[in-house]
Amino acid sequence: MENGNLSTVTVFVFTGFPQLQNGGLLYFFPLLFIYIFIVSGNLMIFFAVRLDTRLHNPMYNFIGIFSFLEMWYTTATIPKMLSNLISEEKTISFVGCLLQMYFFHSLGNTEGTLLTVMAIDRYVAICNPLRYPNIMTPRLCAQLTAGSCIFGFLILLPEIVWISALPFCGPNQIHQIFCDFTPLLKLACTDASVILVQDVIHALAILITSLIISLSYIRIIVVILGISSTEGRKKAFSTCAAHIAVFLLFFGSVALMYLRFSATYTPFWDNVIALTFSVFAPLFNPIIYSLRNKDMKDAIKKLFCSQKVFNESGR
């Protein structure tokens, strides 16, 4: 740090990690295994959707895109976590911190928007099945996917640019395991009321999005319960059960992380909530989408079988 200049902090130190001598390696290998599982699981789902023609429909297209985003969502934070667990200096540059926040939250925003699109897709499919093929055309699906990505990545830019212009004159310790808005803003040499304003804006965005998705699924459940045949109800519910589970997991962890306002937790629980949000929730998504769906399981088996045949033919 340099004296005499308000914007003096160029490096931040994470305080949420155990020191190497205090068992950092004990956390490194389980986290590495989880990261490999998340990436390989989501890659399997993505390629299964792309390569199996039976899955070339709007629902599976959105699942494939969501899995692709989930892979990069975890890549925005976990590799740096792994590095910090085995490093003596658990630091990140100011620019690196801003980039990590931008990509992590932009990908998260894109996923949240895509989950809204997926809820609307299931709403149309179950509540208006006769018009579904005419409404959810391939062109509209591509537009909704592209729109989700563009919105997710553009909506955060003004906030990141604003934070980059704030003065950071010390201290430089981030009490978290990755760069996030509130821990970083607490270090800025500026009016603390901006943190409350930022919290309110984020909370409103989370509540509005989750409300839209919740209303869609409530309406879907009402329609499903009105189906006369047991087999029809079971089939209709099976098409959206995984979506509901992922929605609850995603927004449940988001709510734990960002809908607490002035509530404070001990450093241990802060880290647990951060891990739930950034690691454990993404861990279960490939499991939910692959184990709860027969078509997806068949497509993944077909993917492995075709890879096995390709390897044998190359010998």
Automatic annotation (TrEMBL):
Name assigned to this protein: Olfactory receptor
Extract the GO molecular function terms from the UniProt entry.
G protein-coupled receptor activity; olfactory receptor activity
Q: What is the lineage of its organism?
A: Eukaryota, Metazoa, Chordata, Craniata, Vertebrata
> Which residue numbers delimit the G-protein coupled receptors family 1 profile domain?
41-289
InterPro entries assigned: GPCR_Rhodpsn, GPCR_Rhodpsn_7TM, Olfact_rcpt, Olfactory_GPCR1
> Localized where?
Cell membrane
Q: Does the keyword Disulfide bond apply?
A: yes
Write down the species: Cricetulus griseus
- Coarsely, its chief localization is membrane
PANTHER family noted in UniProt:
G-PROTEIN COUPLED RECEPTOR, OLFACTORY RECEPTOR
Describe its membrane topology. Answer: Multi-pass membrane protein
Domain of life from the UniProt record: Eukaryota
Gene Ontology CC terms, in alphabetical order:
plasma membrane
Q: Which PROSITE patterns match?
A: G_PROTEIN_RECEP_F1_1 (PS00237), G_PROTEIN_RECEP_F1_2 (PS50262)
The UniProt entry's sequence similarity note says: Belongs to the G-protein coupled receptor 1 family.
Question: Which regions span the lipid bilayer?
Answer: 25-49, 140-163, 200-225, 237-259, 271-291
Alphabetized, the UniProt keywords read: Cell membrane, Disulfide bond, G-protein coupled receptor, Glycoprotein, Membrane, Olfaction, Receptor, Sensory transduction, Transducer, Transmembrane, Transmembrane helix
